[in-house]
Specification:
The complex is a heterodimer.
Chain A: H1 5-9, H2 14-30, H3 35-45, H4 51-67, H5 72-88, H6 92-105, H7 110-157
Chain B: E1 10-17, H1 24-33, E2 46-55, E3 58-67, H2 74-77, E4 86-92, H3 96-100, H4 102-112, E5 118-124, H5 140-149, E6 153-156, H6 165-182, E7 194-196
Parallel strand pairs in B: 1-3, 1-4, 4-5, 5-6
Antiparallel strand pairs in B: 1-7, 2-3
The chains are: A mainly alpha, B alpha/beta.
The complex binds guanosine-5'-triphosphate and magnesium ion.
Keywords (chain B): Acetylation, Cytoplasmic vesicle, Endosome, Golgi apparatus, GTP-binding, Hydrolase, Lipoprotein, Membrane, Methylation, Nucleotide-binding, Prenylation, Protein transport, Transport
GO molecular function (chain B): G protein activity; GTP binding
Subcellular location (chain B): Cytoplasmic vesicle; Early endosome membrane; Golgi apparatus, trans-Golgi network membrane; Recycling endosome
Chain lengths: ~160, ~210
């Protein structure tokens, strides 16, 4: 039994995020950012607690993916973290597209298959929760209606 | 299941480190799934595994972070060292360069973990040392000496046959547990790498429950 969900719940330490953010920005101001610096920063961002950070990380990873057309071994890393980042902001179908793109290139990769499984589970869970929330909203409406009806009846009795 | 009911009393955090291709992920899979992956691709960033074990009659959940050895992951994998109670440092007995890099892995570990972190040295792929045509490139004796000089625990193991794999993970846990008993490891320290789960918090905690089916 492996609860790989912990992999997605683990978050970056703020000081690490700051450290790699600084390097990235210094290079950006200097006019050219190395893929390594951008990757380090993006890796921290997609592990952040805050969805805005994760979204920023995803943009940086997409950029890296496009710019590393010549480096297949790096592109697999970017795909992996694109899947992880998208899962963490609950963009499940995007996340699954990235894992399946990866598995097309490397069908047997156990690490990515595990991630795909976790994404599927999270997606199901979210759907169930949404379902329950939906019911709660409906019953809330029913309750509100009920009390209005009750109030109306109480008023008409006067 | 991260927030589910507890069927363990402690969580120990481990990291597995060492050069790429030495067999870190295979050791993890052998330990968690009792399987050997003959064709294991390079790890991307970090992989994660857990297993609940028994240490001195107590259930302990090991949370294991298997780091990627490829150079481009080096910067960020360092952040996983923090708060590790155990570090398995792996080299490949058939590749001398992986042994030569141990002192730099050790320096990183000592700098980024705390003094109570248990470091266990594993010389992996010992199945490749057969009487006829050994591929061994590092002798047992010199590695043992390195381990003794640096106060590390040490075995030669094989992720392929499973030889000494259990031992490495379990002995590390025993040593950590001893440190807790001796008070050398402060459970309240934020980065001790150990969490204690008081049994009364677990809603379905039953002390005599069968060992977990993992
Ligand atoms: N003969 C033999 N081969 C092994 C053993 N352990 C691992 N291997 C092989 O060595 C290769 C690398 O193993 P991995 O577990 O992927 O190595 P790693 O240290 O995780 O590598 P990175 O993820 O790149 O850091 C794989 O092809 C394994 O099948 C072992 O004990 N004996
Ligand atoms: Mg690996």
């Amino acid at each position: 039994m492996t609860d790989t969900e912990d992999l997605l719940n683990e978050t970056v330490l703020p000081e690490d995020l700051k450290k790699y953010e600084k390097v990235y920005h210094e290079q950006l101001h200097g006019g050219s950012v190395t893929r390594q610096a951008q990757f380090n920063y993006a890796w921290c961002l997609v592990r952040s607690k805050f969805p805005v950070d994760i979204r920023k990380g995803i943009i940086l990873l997409e950029e890296l993916f496009r710019s590393a057309a010549d480096a297949e071994d790096e592109r697999r890393d970017y795909l992996y973290y694109l899947a992880l980042g998208n899962c963490r902001i609950k963009e499940f179908s995007a996340a699954l597209q990235y894992t399946s793109a990866f598995l097309e290139i490397e069908p047997g990769n156990a690490q990515v298959k595990t991630l795909e499984e976790v994404i599927r589970k999270k997606m199901e869970k979210a759907e169930i929760q949404e379902g329950i929330k939906g019911i709660a909203i409906i019953s809330g409406v029913v309750l509100a209606l009920g009390s209005i009806v009750g109030l109306g009846m109480a008023l008409s009795k006067k | 299941m991260s927030a589910g009911p507890y069927n363990y009393e402690y969580i120990f955090k481990y990291i597995i480190i060492g050069d790429m291709g030495v067999g870190k992920s295979c050791l993890l899979h052998q330990f968690t799934d009792k399987k050997f992956m003959a064709d294991c691709p390079h790890t991307i960033g970090v992989e994660f595994g857990t297993r609940i074990i028994d240490v001195a009659g107590q259930k302990v959940k090991l949370q294991i972070w298997d780091t990627a050895g490829q150079e481009r992951f080096r910067a960020v994998t360092r952040s996983y060292y923090r708060g590790a109670a155990g570090a398995l440092m792996v080299y490949d007995i058939t590749r001398r360069s992986t042994y030569n890099h141990l002192s730099s892995w050790l320096t990183d570990t000592r700098t980024l973990t705390n003094p109570s972190t248990v470091i266990f040295l594993i010389g992996n792929k010992c199945d490749l040392d057969s009487a006829d045509g050994s591929q061994r490139d590092v002798t047992y004796e010199e590695a043992k000496q390195f381990a003794d000089e640096n106060g590390l625990m040490f075995v030669e193991a094989s992720a392929k046959t499973g030889d000494n794999v259990e031992e490495a993970f379990l002995e590390t846990a025993k040593k950590i547990y001893q440190s807790i008993q001796d008070g050398r490891l402060d459970l309240n320290a934020a980065e001790s790498g150990v969490q204690h789960k008081p049994p009364q918090l677990g809603s379905d905690f039953t002390p005599n429950k069968d060992p977990c089916s993992c």
